[in-house]
Amino acid sequence: MTRILKGGLIQCSNPLNDESKPVPEIQAAMLEKHRPFLDQAGERGVQVLCLQELFNAPYFCPSQDPRWYDAAEPVPGPCTEVMAEYAKKYSMAIVVPVYEREQAGVYYNTAAVIDADGSYLGKYRKIHIPHTSGFWEKYFFKPGNLGYPVFDTAYGKVGVYICYDRHFPEGARLLGLAGAEVVFNPSATVAGLSQYLWRLEQPAHAVANGYYMGCINRVGTEAPWNIGKFYGNSYFVDPRGSFISEASEDDDELITADMDLDVIEEVRRIWQFYRDRRPETYEDMTRLLP
């Protein structure tokens, strides 16, 4: 029997674009902005939904302001509890990217995964952390230390790769080796230097590894940092590298895609990358510097 997984992505702008407001007030506004889209996803029969990077906050990393540490919370914690209610209500697994506080002074850029019955399956912590103009992420996040887990949801095997991770093919391959059928990449990226890579790298990961990808970016311009326009263009891509659903550059919106998981087997029987790979020849990848 054909296995169809209906995926969903929500791209959203910051409704309280005023950095002077208290951090909890900004986060509450972001959550409220997402609620109608969460309901819409459930009503449209989405089975696995992914939200954008740091979904309940602005992308605060252009600053090096310690007040944003107040945005961090335990995982599991208050936000995952809210999402668990939506998951149970709609029998919908949800990937929930948030700012995680593990303990005092120890913070991660994290995505929790909630299954369709509301149970907490685990989390992925962003491993590759940029530190460059406008993206001072090492000030806010430790590199992830949980490896590249794949989560066995009620509907399929899901992996997560967060934003800057997408520039590194090694983790994308490890997610495939661990059995991922769909890999979600929640992001916050602006027009400019890397925009052309947005539609290049992730289809390449999908082809090289024979799985679907759901790639999500926020929209709008966020004050007071104004580092550029978050250009949306969230999309789903299949194991052949074909775009099967795409969002606009400007709108807050939910997009969905029906992913035929049987295509993974079909594609991998043609392109035998897993059969033909030669890991015994790759030792220098971890030995050579830099």
Q: Describe the oligomeric state of these chains in a short phrase.
A: single chain
**What does the main sheet amount to?**
6 strands, mixed
Report the structural category.
alpha/beta
CATH architecture: 4-Layer Sandwich
Q: Uncertain segments of ≥5 residues (pLDDT<50)? A: none
- What's the CATH class label? Alpha Beta
What general form does the structure show? Answer: globular
- Helical proportion? 25-40%
Number of helices in the DSSP assignment = 8
The average pLDDT value, as a whole number, equals 96
Order of helices and strands: EHEHEEEEEEEHEHHEEEEEEHHH
Q: Beta fraction of the residues?
A: 25-35%
Radius of gyration, rounded?
18 Å
Q: At the fourth CATH level, what is the homologous superfamily?
A: Carbon-nitrogen hydrolase
First and last CA, distance: 48 Å
User: What is the tally of beta strands?
Assistant: 16
Q: How many domains, in number, for the residues? A: 1
Spatial ordering of strands, largest sheet: 5-4-3-2-1-16
CATH topology: Nitrilase/N-carbamoyl-D-aminoacid amidohydrolase
